[in-house]
Amino acid sequence: MSLSLNTFQTTNSRVDVTYKLTGQPEPVQLSGVVVRPGTPFNNGTIVITTHTLPHSTKGIVLAIDIQALKELELVHFEAKYSVDLTEQRMLANGFQSWSQAREMDQNDKIPSIRSSIAWYTQYNLQGDYDFFPHSGEKGQIHSSSYTHFRDIHNVLRFFGSISESLGYTYFKSDYNNNILSVYKDVFGKTIAPNQTLELIRIFIGESNQEGALWDMYGAFFEDKRCLKGNTAQRHVNGWTSWYNYYGDVSEEIVFENVDALVKHKYPINVFQIDDGFQTAIGDWLSINKKFPSGMKSVASKIKGAGFMAGLWLAPYAVGFNSNVAKKHPDWLIQDPITKKPVVAGPNWGGFYALDMYHPQAREYLREVFHVVLEDWGFDMVKLDFLFAAAMIPRLGKSRGEIMWDAMEQIRELVGPDKLILGCGVPLAAAWRKVDYCRIGSDVSPWWEDTKLKLLHVRERVSTANSLVSTLSRWAMSDRMFGNDPDVMILRNKKNKLKPSERYTLCVLNNILGALVFSSDNVGDYGKDEHLLYAATFPKVVAHVESVIEFRPEMFLVHFTVANKGGEPRHYTTISNMTGESQTCYLPPSDDETHLYFATNDSMHMTKPDKREPLFYHPSSRFTLEEHETKTFLHIPPPSPENNGKVTLMGSTSHIVPGAEVELLDLAPDGSVQIKFRKENQRQRKVYICLGNQYFATRAAPSACKVNGVMVPVEIHPISGNGEGRTETEVAVAVVEA
């Protein structure tokens, strides 16, 4: 059977369920129970029913309910469906923010971390390796909370859980046997007699528009964000201390970087202090002596510069040597077998998990947030290592249920008027509760950690690892929260990334992210570093239409950016994530595309590579070197409507050509008026064309009046012979400001 909506409206579920009855030591295990739509399964202890609900012409909701006739505790639940997975690529969404997400197929596998490595590194604690089986078998793929299947025509079948409040949901594909399973992590969940759980609720949709599917899916989740809805205000840039100073951040460093940003007129929105201001993890109100003026004074300095002030916390983490751990051991989650505190991770020498249900621990967090947000005056909190709240099931609740409660608690404690940046969190629990959320691993000042990649650590710190998740989770942004793809690292100091890799990180994060940080000290920048960083202002607000991996590790991004009048400019970004050069072909011409203007990593610099073509014919061939990215502005076809208008042909002063232009129009006297966005303060170069004078002749006008000043017209070759076009040239007026 196919993955169509009709299949799931009529097909049977084959259910495996295991549960424990009160007073009986051995669990009851049922395998392959056939549950037909509208016909309940009843064995005198549990009743299982399945049905579907219409949602729209492009979607349904698949429902599976469990009723307990006696008190019981669930151990395992999985519903299986026979489907045809041939030539389908499955989105494998990792467990939490840092866990890799990417599309996979029948030739891929997801191994677990080896037990010896897990014992030595404790990296397993950051993921789901200890409670969800990773088969490591070829053709067996799983995805957390949601997935999609992409066929060869780029039609998507989307599956998204809307019952994560009862437990983590996994979608499992066995390509070898054409089986799709819905697995629910129910371990530890108790059900009272005659209680019915709406255990499985899955939105299933079908479309070739991924964004439209996420629009429908997002509507199932209550919007509790400070910034509600899909708003351009959510798109901001900022500075964070972590990726340059790490735990060595100090008041002196903070003030130095604030002053440098002001001096060089970088209009960032958020300035965030990361880990290092506190004396110990968990002792959030005990301030390190590196901040002698106190955090209220530091926040005032930041806000006085015109920035929002952000502060990092890990509310559910408690360091081994913290005062909280020493004085309040009852606030820590206890292992029910060993009666010792549960270890949540190896960071900072090891940390425990705070018990969010303990009344005094909860009041401590309430005090922390009140002091940070009201007394000190911070505008945003970055809340990290949130997965620690749900390390084990307890109190009759599953892990996922506890995680859901933890994120509900966070929003309630922070309040409705302050911004939250979530991190290290299973994403579904954060949807529409936090304003921003990390959607990839930490980036690094190097491309890849090959050792941890070979050890199957999906949460590894790695620029390549982070970017793959950024490219795979793009559709969450704005709909569920603003995506935080992590920082861009543009500096020369303490950075092993090549120029092309820095540019790729910069471009993809800005296009696909809503919150884009840097940690560079701009006071240390040379001229080229300044030019590239300045080319990211203003923060581009991209409406992403699609992201497609058109061959292994080669990605094509289609997006639009609205001009001041609301009219969209069309763009295509192509990224080579492979380790070798790749031959690529531009998309064909269409109603919006007659030519392409191309960017590259050197064009924003003092010495651009003049061998690189600026203009291309559609369908033309070009080369991307390893880890290189190019963004192409679509130049519309000549038409009668263009007469009396001015067309943007390209620019070198923004990573998304034209995003720095506020106004481009013709004055009544026929001259051009151009106005730039105030956020863009760098040297500018913009190419324009009057009317339909796209293709040059040597009789083309030699100058054009812009803002009352005559500017030169240049003749540029158009590269490529796509669609059978011959060698031609284009005449563009060049505006420099």
UniProtKB/TrEMBL annotation:
Q: Which residues form a coiled coil?
A: none
Q: Which reaction does it catalyse?
A: Hydrolysis of terminal, non-reducing alpha-D-galactose residues in alpha-D-galactosides, including galactose oligosaccharides, galactomannans and galactolipids
Establish whether keyword Hydrolase is in the entry.
yes
| InterPro entries xrefs | Aldolase_TIM (IPR013785), Alpha-glycosidase_related (IPR050985), GH (IPR017853), Glyco_hydro_36 (IPR002252)
Keywords attached to this Swiss-Prot or TrEMBL record, sorted alphabetically, are: Glycosidase, Hydrolase
Q: Which GO terms describe its molecular function?
A: alpha-galactosidase activity
Biological processes, Gene Ontology terms:
carbohydrate catabolic process
- Name the enzyme's class: hydrolase
Q: Report the EC number(s), separated by commas if there are several.
A: 3.2.1.22
Q: What is this protein called?
A: alpha-galactosidase
Record the organism: Phycomyces blakesleeanus (strain ATCC 8743b / DSM 1359 / FGSC 10004 / NBRC 33097 / NRRL 1555)
